[in-house]
Fold this protein.
Amino acid sequence: MNTSTPSLQNDCAYTLVSEQEIASICDRLAAEITETYKDSNRRLVMVVILKGSMPFAAELMKRLSLPLELEFMKVSSYGAGTKSLGEIKVHVDLKRDDLMDLDLLVVEDIIDSGRTLFRLTELLKNRNAHSVRTCTLLDKPSRREVDFVPDFCGRVIPDEFVVGFGLDYNEMYRNLPFVGVLKREVYEK
Ligand code: PRP
């Protein structure tokens, strides 16, 4: 039986990050993260940002042999100023108020303007987390509008419309097992 998803795959012009490359990126990131936290005696909490980061976080966490806890947040950022903090709306919040003594590792699928992680990391630091680090599968630095550099980065990509492995267009394509570049005709029709 053919278990592929041909119509979704056909909407991609080409594969940008293959399943195999995603696996090797996750191997490398897991090693970097382990090295960073291995001597910490604080509680490590992986904060997965819904929805797009889910597949990446799942691949990453199974490669981490560190003791860690799992939390989810869903946020969206507002405001166009390049200097001000702007606003962040929290749709799904952490299930705890006191972040003291916690090492937070925020996991994202992609950084574009940088606004979401810029504001979210400020928010979490203001809640007294001991440390806040960020890990992204993909980074589009050419789109940056605020000064933000992730602590752990899977791969820098060009400014293309990417879908798959959590990334969506109109909520579709998240279940593709690779990251592909969407055909222009799909989003311009
Ligand atoms: C995406 C991504 C980041 C944000 C990055 O989320 O997961 O959270 O956009 O963009 P920025 O760097 O310009 O702030 P999205 O709002 O598409 O939500 P989703 O993960 O639920 O699809």
Remarks:
- The chain has a mean pLDDT of 93.
